[in-house]
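step: validate -> pass
step: tokenize input -> pass
step: predict -> running
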Amino acid sequence: MSGLVLKLGPRERVLINGAVIENGDRRSRLSIVTPGAHILRLRDAIHPEEVTTPVRRVCYIAQLVLSGDVDMEDAKIQILRGMEQLSQVFTDPDSRVQLAEATEHVVRGQVYHALKSLRMLLPREERLIAAAQA
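step: predict -> pass
step: emit ->
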């Protein structure tokens, strides 16, 4: 069986296809076997007021797709354009790999995996911003 495995802590919440699901009192593990299910851990969610940087903006658009607030086809071009802009700043090999993976996932319609790859750029972006302000 393939698919996504979610390991949830006590009382952790996750959004699956628009429904908020809360775990019970114990740790649990869920296997998502439906291809194309939209899943978002609420502890990882970026709130609108936190969209203050270019990487966060692209992540937020992908997150809107996962939450069901935006259609994938409507968001696809915005996400790809945003990643193209990010590729002008993130020129190191590791970042390029993350952007290439994210792009491939978006093209395939795998928004969860694209978001996962994009989130890897958040600490790098924070370091770049901190260095520019210093």
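step: describe -> The two ends are 50 Å apart (CA to CA).
step: cleanup -> pass
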